[in-house]
Structures are given as structure tokens and as C-alpha cells.
Design a protein that fits this description.
Blueprint: H1 4-12, H2 18-33, E1 38-42, E2 53-57, E3 61-67, E4 71-76, E5 99-104, H3 111-125
Antiparallel strand pairs: 1-2, 2-3, 3-4, 4-5
Helix pairs in contact: 2-3
Length: about 130
């Protein structure tokens, strides 16, 4: 039986263009940064060929990945509260909660800095509240 990440990986690899390759590379870094990460596909609609948007979570949403014509966008749900010493965030900078990384064709993202950002996002989410 296939696991969720494998099914999501297969769905993510259909087109084979630079956006698919970029998203697959970033997905691998996310899972390396936190092997306990949960990956789901949400928000299935015609504009994303009913494939949905990959959503990575650990005690809450960490980030989403979307493909657009000119960029692959990784949006961190609570990115405004995360340290970003490498200045990876380059989009959605005006918001009070989210931050995003737009990756254009041919651009490379510093793998170590990105994994540190993912780990910081997981830590920010923290463990779920204990029931009383």
C-alpha cells in the first residue's frame, strides 16, 4: 500500500517541467528537515488540474507549495514570526502572518537555510495542547 508522501510525489511529478522538478526538490528538503512531516493535497480545483495543493504540516500547517506560470511559491503559514537570517522569504512580505519564497526558473535555494526555516516553522507550531 502506498504512503501519502509517495502518492503526493506521483501526483506532483506528472508534468515534468521545471516547476514540477523544483517542487519535487523542495518537497524532498521539507521531508529531510522533518521526517515526521505530514503531507496532504488540499484545495482541489480546475485551476490546479484537480491535483490539489501540497500542504505540509506538523502540529499545524508548516507550508504549502503552488505552481504558477513563472514561479513555484512556498508559503509558510506563520512565516512572519520565523527568523530568516538567510533572507529566503522574498514574497508576501507585507502580511502580518504569512511569508513566501518565490522560486523562478533556474534559481536555486540554499538547502541548509531552507531546512533550518522548515525546522523553525515546526518548532513555532509546537506540540498540540494537552487536553484537560
Amino acid at each position: 500500500m502506498a504512503t501519502k508522501p509517495k502518492r503526493a510525489e506521483q501526483a506532483a511529478g506528472k508534468a515534468g517541467d521545471w516547476r514540477e522538478e523544483t517542487l519535487a526538490r523542495m518537497r524532498a528538503l521539507i521531508l529531510e528537515a522533518d521526517p515526521e512531516m505530514i503531507e496532504e493535497r488540499k484545495w482541489r480545483k480546475a485551476s490546479n488540474a484537480m491535483a490539489g495543493v501540497p500542504v505540509w504540516s506538523h502540529d499545524g500547517i508548516v507550508c504549502t507549495g503552488e505552481k504558477y506560470a513563472k514561479v513555484v511559491k512556498l508559503t509558510f503559514a506563520r512565516g512572519a514570526s520565523l527568523p530568516d537570517p538567510s533572507r529566503l522569504f522574498n514574497s508576501s512580505l507585507e502580511g502580518g502572518t504569512r511569508r513566501a519564497i518565490d522560486i523562478h526558473e533556474g534559481e536555486k535555494v540554499d538547502a541548509g537555510a531552507f531546512k533550518a526555516l522548515v525546522k523553525a516553522a515546526v518548532a513555532r507550531n509546537g506540540p498540540p495542547a494537552k487536553k484537560r
